[in-house]
Specification:
Elements: E1 15-16, E2 19-20, H1 21-28, E3 32-36, H2 37-45, E4 52-56, H3 63-71, E5 75-78, H4 81-89, E6 104-108, H5 113-122, E7 125-128, H6 131-140, E8 145-151, E9 173-174, H7 178-187, E10 191-196, H8 205-222, E11 228-230, H9 248-266, E12 271-274, H10 278-281, E13 285-297, E14 300-305, H11 314-318, E15 324-327, E16 337-343, E17 364-367, E18 374-377, E19 398-403, E20 406-411
Parallel strand pairs: 3-19, 4-5, 4-12, 5-6, 6-7, 7-8, 8-9, 8-10, 10-11, 11-12, 14-16
Antiparallel strand pairs: 1-2, 3-13, 13-14, 13-18, 15-18, 16-17, 19-20
């Protein structure tokens, strides 16, 4: 196989946030997720123009990450009882103080029975994504405030699977049903204090302008009872060197202009929220895995890792691209690289980290390595650990947070003995 000396800086990774990759791997084992707290702080600071930053914790719901968000003055979105519980465990109160934004908002397209019980009991603010939810909530909690999530009839996403608007999406209240939903809310004396609109990930400015216009039209139909509009999430996140950072000032300006026109119409101020998930955490996360086998299959050379799609599912789900680099266990001076396919240990042909949408296996130019060296997969802080599984009865990876005080094990590696902890064999006669 042809070797190249055209080494780029990001092909070799010796440190993450100043900590040695090799030492982290030896201390915590592999596979292990590592999060750089300072990067999370930097990303949050870029969003300070918005009145409220509401973190969509489904991207990364580790308690240490949620605690960091809380200490930064960020509030959270929850999509399940489990996420409500996590947020509360991380220190978020269930309900807001006077004139404060809701610390936890439950956003979903259904109420499972347990979720409705929790929201009634703890007075968690709901963001309702289906007309049936209005009736179910109104019957249990008449007279309370709610937010409505509107599907404007169009969407956007880097994959069809991340497109959350339009007729093919299950998310939100169809824009043509708004008047019916206003009548349902009035029946139960519900105040629609917020409107939320999110059309998918990677939204560009052309689509964003359409969203802002749709939000303005919907808000005018709801009327001056509105106190908050939410820009949703989906902020583009760069994964490749050529990917550009989103212009946050321009993004904010479009939404702020919409908010100001509505405030003028309603004759009172409106709060402008943003609800990022990937944006604060994606670039802060790294998955460290050990190369356990190197082999040639026809024209392909494989680096096979001890991490698979049970740890990071985005490549198999969306053909998602993640930057990769090699950390040599023993430093070497050679700058040679080679074209490789990077895969995992699972008994599944799709367990390949270098694939495109549709499952086409591709090669990646990486440094020459040996068994025992490490591959560092970047951009793994969002929709990484949280989408993991025990497929092939593989335990969940460890999670480590790096900050100015050192490295902290914020989730232990799952013991093999825990795999069967909730299972039982029937007692037979």
């Amino acid at each position: 196989m042809t070797l190249s000396t055209a080494m780029t800086e990001n092909l070799v990774c010796t440190e993450i946030a100043g900590r040695s990759v090799r030492e982290l791997a030896e201390k915590y084992g592999t596979p292990t997720y590592v999060y750089d707290a300072e990067k999370i702080v930097q990303q949050i600071e870029r969003l300070r123009s918005f009145d409220v930053i509401r973190y969509a914790q489904k991207a990364n719901s580790n308690l240490a990450v949620l605690d960091l968000m809380r200490r930064l003055g960020v509030v959270v979105d929850a999509v399940s009882v489990g996420e409500i519980y996590r947020a509360h465990r991380a220190g978020f109160p269930y309900k807001a103080g006077e004139n404060d934004p809701a610390p936890i908002v439950y956003t979903a397209d259904i109420f499972d029975r347990e979720a409705l019980d929790w929201i009634e009991k703890h007075r968690v603010h709901p963001n309702l994504g289906s007309p049936d939810m209005i009736d179910q909530f109104g019957e249990r909690c008449p007279g309370r405030d709610v937010t409505l999530r509107i599907n404007p009839g169009f969407g956007h996403g880097h994959s069809q699977k991340t497109n959350t608007g339009g007729a093919s999406s299950k998310h939100g209240i169809w824009h043509e049903d708004l008047d019916d939903c206003l009548a349902r809310a009035a029946k139960y004396d519900l105040t629609i204090s917020g409107l939320h609109m999110h059309i998918g990930s990677g939204t560009d400015f052309e689509h964003l302008a359409q969203v802002c216009q749709a939000m303005e039209e919907m808000a005018l139909r709801v009327g001056p009872q509105l106190k908050t509009i939410s820009a949703g999430g989906g902020l583009p996140t760069p994964y490749r060197n050529e990917d550009e950072e989103i212009d946050i000032e321009r993004y904010y300006a479009l939404w702020d202009a919409t908010r100001q026109r509505l405030a003028t119409e309603f004759e009172h101020p409106l709060s402008l929220e943003i609800e990022p998930g990937r944006y604060p955490v994606a670039q802060a996360g790294f998955l460290i895995a050990e190369i356990r086998a190197i082999k040639t299959m026809g024209e392909n050379l494989f680096y096979l890792l001890d991490a698979g799609f049970n740890n990071l599912a985005r490549p198999i789900l969306y053909g998602a691209y993640h930057p990769m680099s090699v950390a040599h266990r023993v430093p070497r001076e050679s700058a040679k690289t080679q074209e490789v396919v990077v895969g995992g240990p699972l008994c599944e042909s799709g367990d390949i980290f270098t694939q495109t949408d549709g499952g086409l296996v591709v090669r990646r130019n990486l440094p020459v390595a040996e068994v025992g060296d490490f591959v560092v997969i970047g951009g793994a802080g969002a929709y990484g650990f949280v989408m993991g599984s025990n497929y092939n009865s593989k335990p969940f990876a460890a999670e480590v947070l790096l900050d100015q005080d050192g490295d902290h094990l914020v989730r232990q590696r799952e013991p093999v003995s825990d795999l069967c902890r909730l299972e039982s064999i029937p007692v037979r006669q």
